[in-house]
Amino acid sequence: MADRPEVHSQASQRDPNARPRRDMKDVGSEDRFSDTSGVLFEQAMAQTRMAVCLSDPNLPDQPIVFANRAFRRLTGYDEDEILGRNCRFLQGPKTDRAEVSRVREAIENEDVVVVELLNYRKDGTEFWNALHLGPIYDAQGKLLYFFGSQWDVSDVRAAREEERHARAMARELSHRIKNMFSVISGIVNVMGRVRGVEDTASEINSRIHALGRAYETTLDEASVGVIDLGPAVKAILEPYAVDERVKFLGNGAQVPFSAMSLIGLVLHELAANATRYGAWAEGYDGQVSVDWQRRDGNAVLTWIETGGAPISGAPAHSGTGATIMNRMVAAARGTIEREWKPEGLHAVLTVPIEGGNT
Ligand SMILES: Cc1cc2nc3c(=O)[nH]c(=O)nc-3n(C[C@H](O)[C@H](O)[C@H](O)COP(=O)(O)O)c2cc1C
């Protein structure tokens, strides 16, 4: 049966009770498409861009009895090369036999099945066919046809493969970076012990670990170049945020991967200070709320402490942590404003973001 919309008789449109077109009879022995919906179905099948075919399970080796134009276009075969053959003629040397067996079993069990099969066009070129099969019954429940729709998903598969590759690379990179952080950390420990400066070494190490955490959560996404700030902020603060004494307020802002070192280190310094002198200091029950937003081309992190150890203004001299933080912020052309209010520190980090979308 051909799908020729141009021959779809005007008569059948005028007369809903018109007999089906002669070629519709090729579908089978029964007159199943003789009503209006049948004619509409026929026209829809002819016009759809989705390749569609019907096979007759009541004939030996289940031959195709209908294939629409899109099927012919997809496979490159003419109608007379398709009708009367089992659809396996589209398979070839690289078609996965296990998937073909799944199709065979589904057909035997009269199940619906969706598989992706490597198929071959008439000219020998390969394409990935997302094949959807299902049985069609008459009103008495007798199996009449199998319906098949074919969709060329070669592009989708290629994109998926690329994505898979990028993720595998990111995982590998993440693994290597983690190793590198632990090697650096080991060197710092050994040097600290040898030189008798264990305290300094452990301080440096806590910074290295904060950086490690900042990268760890973000590397899986690194392939797309932007990082979700929320999960990264939470991971960086995880070792400090005891007893739910931190409130995360930020939205789904994203930042470029390159901003993570700075954000990781600044959060570490703020958290370390809160633990030593502020909201998280021993003997107090203070809270920290952390907010993050994308605003006017900047990532803006707001850190607000309340209920911690009482403070009376800015510290007399800034420690090493603050010096490192200030240098890094300046190098990134950002700013960090700190205000020592009676109830606790308020800090706002602003980092200019080039590229990266929100
Ligand atoms: C309606 C229908 C459409 C089918 N379309 C395809 C197809 O596009 N590509 C394909 O490789 N197999 C297709 N098949 C599957 C094969 O025809 C066949 O059932 C499968 O290869 C398993 O049987 P076999 O192990 O005897 O080959 C289709 C089957 C049916 C019933």
From TrEMBL:
Keyword Iron: no
Pfam families recorded: HWE_HK, PAS_9
Segments forming domain PAC: 113-165
Documented EC number(s): 2.7.13.3
Transmembrane segments: none
Keyword check for Mitochondrion: no
Family matches, as InterPro entries: HATPase_C_sf, PAC, PAS, PAS-assoc_C, PAS-like_dom_sf, Sig_transdc_His_kinase_HWE
Chain positions covered by the region annotation Disordered: 1-33
SMART domains with a match to the protein in the record: HWE_HK, PAC
Record's compositionally biased regions (Basic and acidic residues): 16-33
Domain PAS: start-end pairs: 64-110
First-tier enzyme category under EC: transferase
Reactions mediated catalytically: ATP + protein L-histidine = ADP + protein N-phospho-L-histidine
Keywords: ATP-binding, Chromophore, Flavoprotein, FMN, Kinase, Nucleotide-binding, Phosphoprotein, Photoreceptor protein, Receptor, Sensory transduction, Transferase
SUPFAM superfamilies, sorted: ATPase domain of HSP90 chaperone/DNA topoisomerase II/histidine kinase (SSF55874), PYP-like sensor domain (PAS domain) (SSF55785)
Protein name in the entry: histidine kinase
Organism: Alteriqipengyuania abyssalis
